[in-house]
Design goal:
Shape of chain B: globular
Low-confidence stretches of chain A: none
Oligomer: heterodimer
Strand order of the largest sheet of chain A: 2-1-5-6-7-4-3
Strand content of chain A: 5-15%
Number of strands of chain B: 8
Mean pLDDT of chain B: 92
Radius of gyration of chain B: 16 Å
Largest sheet of chain A: 7 strands, antiparallel
Structural class of chain A: alpha+beta
Structural class of chain B: alpha+beta
Distance between the termini of chain B: 17 Å
Order of helices and strands of chain B: HEEEEHEEHHEE
Strand content of chain B: 25-35%
Shape of chain A: elongated
Helix content of chain B: 10-25%
């Protein structure tokens, strides 16, 4: 921080803590009331009684602020320190002036704590390396195995897999096909591809994740590699393990289904998942991330699950249902990329929010979200989707909330975080409501034969 | 040995935040606002590895001072104190060593439990070193103003002329 900026900030504190190192080598600190000459870059204060200030050594003035919150602790943390030397010899009882030469500080309003912490990563690595040398053994951060797995795989994002897979199974069940064992295998296989992708993303995205100092819990990247919790090779092995599991399940399903459609969907799914961040394709770096995610977590997952049940048959209904799911899951990535865009750009990851101006990004979000709901309404009106699918409209009010959040907090990663969460909910709620719609359609057909489930 | 004057101890126990000042490699003071935790004659503070520069400073030079100056952080008290002493860093296991002060930390900042339960979210924040400060000399300003001379107390084992 520039020394004059430090002085300007120091003015706002009701008192300052003057510190120096005494002749015995101990630091001394005492509260003073400084007066500032910002033009001259100096701070003046009365010499503390009974203490001698050094004429030839550095002194510092620190301002520190918190707001106590009983029962919680405190917040509104900020502090600033300005260093300098006295302009003249300190006289007992007289006023002395310090010329500011450098400054340092932090204000959590200007830099949220998470970002401040992320900027401390290089320091933590150096410190752990020093400790390892000091103790003659590896000293590093750790987490319990369960939490580490949870974090490294980004397990909560599996909802993006469960929504299309369960919908595919539900549509097939409505059409009269239901094999519970195959359904279970499809869910496990889909989850394995997804987790393989998540972990591979960490392996191939090290540079972008490294450059991102404003990660949110929705960011691309679990940061376990950056934090030194897991090595890159371990993550690569974990990813490979998930892909092998998915491939084994896929081969088993293929062997029992004999479906060319399943072969194409499975092969395409594995390719898109891997090519998403892996070289030489690195599709997300080319602005194709949203399309990959839409394709993978929309039609491919949903139709894959559907085809496993029907042993190869595909209906327009399954394709139409996959469209809003695809759009909304792509919007999860799209919005999550907004706070990550500086780090992504620095690493050459040209996502859409990196390429496009703010207004276009926000307006495209709104248009795409509305399109997702329009497809549902149109699908019902045309008679492709069951009438209860209109239940999905219950999630529509979330769209203007997210849109307003994007407009307001576009440049504030941690202000945006709550809206990133609502955006994930939007996909989940629409998926869950469509699922409920299909369960209702199945129940209605079974309980009231001939009941109108579709228009037309 | 708990030789600190009662008023100084009370200030340390009341303060949500104090200033730890250490000496950097250039011999200059560096001040960090931290929560002071007072226990059985020692002052404890903790530092995450993310912000471990201070630990490097005080491993190089153990001389430190802890000042309690902010009336807002001490529930409106107007008196102030500065305690000089030597610090050592306890960090056999940065994952757990510091947890011994968690009960007194919790008493000042109950919210720490919320964060601690979600340590997987901020894993490096909870990789911490424990700073133990042995007080050698205490300066106390009853009226808080630096225009009056502080009353000075010195640890019994250190002769006053050496303090």
């Amino acid at each position: 921080m520039d020394a004059r900026l430090g002085l300007r900030k120091l003015v706002d504190y009701p008192f300052q803590v003057l510190s120096w190192v005494d002749d015995d080598g101990y630091p001394v600190s005492v509260a003073v009331q400084a007066r500032f000459d910002l033009a001259a870059g100096t701070a003046s204060f009365e010499t503390p009684t009974g203490l001698s200030l050094p004429a030839e050594r550095d002194l510092s003035l620190t301002g520190s602020h918190i707001r106590p919150r009983p029962g919680y602790g405190y917040d509104e943390r900020r502090h600033v320190t300005v260093w300098g030397r006295l302009l003249g010899p300190p006289a007992a009882g007289g006023e002395v002036a310090l010329r500011a030469v450098r400054a340092w500080g932090w204000d959590e309003e200007e830099m949220p704590f998470v970002e401040y912490s992320e900027r401390g990563l290089p320091q933590s690595r150096r410190y752990f390396a020093g400790l390892s040398e000091q103790f003659g053994r590896r000293v590093g951060p750790r987490l319990g195995r369960g939490w580490l797995f949870f974090r490294a795989t980004r397990l909560p994002f599996l909802s993006a897999t469960f929504v299309p897979v369960l919908l595919g199974i539900a549509i097939a069940a409505k059409d009269g096909y239901f094999d519970p064992f195959a359904a279970l295998l499809t869910i496990v296989g889909g989850a394995a591809v997804h987790l393989g992708l998540n972990v591979a993303n960490d392996v191939f995205d090290v540079e972008a994740d490294e450059a991102n100092v404003t990660p949110t819990r929705f960011s691309g990247g679990s940061r376990v590699i950056q934090y030194g919790l897991v090595g890159r090779r371990q993550m690569a092995r974990l990813s490979l393990g998930f892909y092998l599991l998915a491939a084994a399940i896929g081969l088993f399903l293929l062997a029992t289904r004999y479906s060319p459609a399943l072969l194409i969907i499975g092969a395409l799914g594995m390719f898109v998942s891997f090519a998403y961040t892996a070289p030489p394709f690195r599709l997300v770096y080319r602005g194709l991330g949203e399309i990959c995610v839409a394709l993978g977590f929309g039609p491919l997952m949903l139709l894959g699950a559907y085809v496993v049940q029907t042993r190869g048959a595909i209906t327009p209904e399954a394709v139409v249902v996959s469209i809003p799911v695809a759009i909304l899951v792509a919007l999860i990535l799209y919005v999550n990329e907004i706070p990550d865009r500086s780090g992504d750009e620095a690493a050459g990851k040209r996502t859409l929010p990196v390429r496009w101006p703010r207004d276009l990004v926000v307006n495209v979000y709104l248009a795409a979200a509305i399109l997702a709901f329009a497809v549902v309404v149109l699908g019902v009106l045309v008679g492709w989707l069951p009438i209860p699918a209109l239940l999905a409209l219950a999630a529509l009010p979330l769209v203007p909330r997210i849109y307003a959040g994007l407009q307001r907090y576009y440049d504030q990663p941690y202000g945006l975080m709550a809206f990133l969460g609502v955006n994930v909910q939007l996909h989940l709620f629409v998926g869950a409501l469509l699922l409920i719609a299909y369960v209702l359609a199945i129940a209605l057909t079974a309980l009231v034969p001939g009941a109108p489930v579709f228009f037309g | 040995m708990d030789w600190l004057p009662t008023e100084v101890r009370e200030l340390l126990e009341a303060a949500l935040v104090a200033e730890l000042t250490v000496v950097n490699e250039r011999g200059s003071p560096v001040t960090y606002p931290l929560i002071p935790l007072y226990d059985d004659g020692r002052i404890y503070m903790t530092s995450s590895v993310l912000f471990s520069k201070k630990l490097e400073h005080l491993k190089r030079d153990a001389h430190v001072c802890v000042s309690v100056t902010d009336p807002v952080a001490t529930g409106g008290r107007s008196d102030r104190a500065t305690i000089q002493g030597e610090a050592r860093v306890l960090e056999d296991d940065p994952h757990t060593t510091w947890e011994r002060v968690l009960p007194i930390w919790r008493a000042k900042e109950p919210a720490i439990d919320l964060f601690y339960k979600q340590r997987f979210g901020l894993p490096l924040f909870f990789e911490r070193s424990l700073i133990e400060i042995i007080p050698r000399r205490a300066l106390y300003w009853a009226d808080g103003g630096s225009q009056s001379a502080p009353s000075v107390s010195v640890a019994p084992e250190i002769p006053p002329e050496a303090g």
